[in-house]
Amino acid sequence: MSELIGAIDQGTSSTRFMVFNQSGEIVARAQKEHAQIFPQPGWVEHDLNEVWDNTEEVIGQALSDAGLEASDLTAVGITNQRETTAIWDRSSGEPVSNAIVWQDTRTADLCSELAGDQGNDRFKAKTGLPIATYFSGPKIKWMLDELDLHERAQRGELAFGTMDSWLTWKLTGKHVTDVTNASRTLLMDLATTTWDSDLAMEMGVPTSMLPEIVSSIGEIGVCSGVLDGVPLMCILGDQQAALFGQTCFGVGDVKNTYGTGNFILMNVGTDPVMSKSGLLTTVAYKIGDEAPRYALEGSIAVTGSLIQWLRDNLGIIEEAADVNQLASQVDDNGDVYFVPAFSGLFAPYWRQDARGVLTGLTRYANKSHIARAALEAAAYQTRDVVGAMEADSGKELTVLKVDGGMAASELLMQFQADLLGSEVVRPMITETTVLGAAFGAGLAAGVWSDFDSLTELWEEDKRWQPEMDGGEANRLYDRWAQAVQRSFGWV
Question: C or N: which end of the chain has fewer Cβ atoms within 10 Å?
Fold first, then answer.
């Protein structure tokens, strides 16, 4: 049997475990959703114990279904929803509350206070990030303030972590995070990849709460329990893992993951590029003692979750995949545009005051137009980000590698190519997030020797060429821009 690599993908809506062989083929898999908890408008939470229970369950199920034991695995990697914030008691290991999810907007007032007269870019030169509800630092402060945890935190009784830290704690007993996740907190200095005490002080976060920052790829710890004896060799935030899984190792390589939200990353190499166009500068990955690689990122809050909203809140489709058939019943959007600013707008706007709008409605419009507008919103928001990325990097996009659940929509992929005027390429394995965590773990464990051996495993499934007239694409995009303006200033 060839060497096998396991990967945990702890996502926003579910947790899954997959096992890959040396050829990059999937040999085992299991997945389970967890509850989305909405205590108030704008609040989104996850039950940390439920997430851990599900993690144990999917690992056990995947191994059992494939007739495998934990001892059959050479190594394991973790990839995770990034900014979601957890605090737990170091002694008991019990969470102090539910985790606050990256989509949550309860820290809007706190973010405004932190920005003050200097604005949302107050910490950007050091962190690469604007001050926004998206990131972990303000969420930690909110929890310390509202749950009256400051004294316990000062005494060193509490541990903070993003979801990778929580799973690593449960698996290995170590309190660590990797550089990609740490770079999403507003607490890490991008240049040094270390916690910054001044930033922590500004946030009111005791540094004793913070996990040790480790490289993304290398020896991290040895698991116990359901993965007893298996070395943990990789931690990557989900979007960085997708970049790795898409083998975007060259400067200028770009991928877009169509998941709960859309996340477009461009590898910019060993020198961070500070955005002037509303993008984030983040760590792409760090291998052992090598210099970190950086990325420009455009984060979009709502794309795939908009399709879930059509299913769960409006009931116009029964399954998420049904949106394609419904949308294809009309030739165009009927001048209907859907700006899904349910949590404000992220890149490149960073407007916390925006809320969702459905514009251009007439008696002519029907549910097919709304379905098409919802699909197209993912493509329009992607063009927003790609335009900013081209401006910051000075590089024109010619090929966009795509992955994630919505990449299965051929209607959307063709429209994306038309709107960008660029080729869109989908790989054979679209689960590139979990594949990236496996690639990282396998690289650290010596299952694969170098980037070239990983690149050889990447296979193209389908490629879309632009077919729409460029003038028509620009006209549609201008209408989208009008709709976006109408979403501003609601809150």
Answer: N
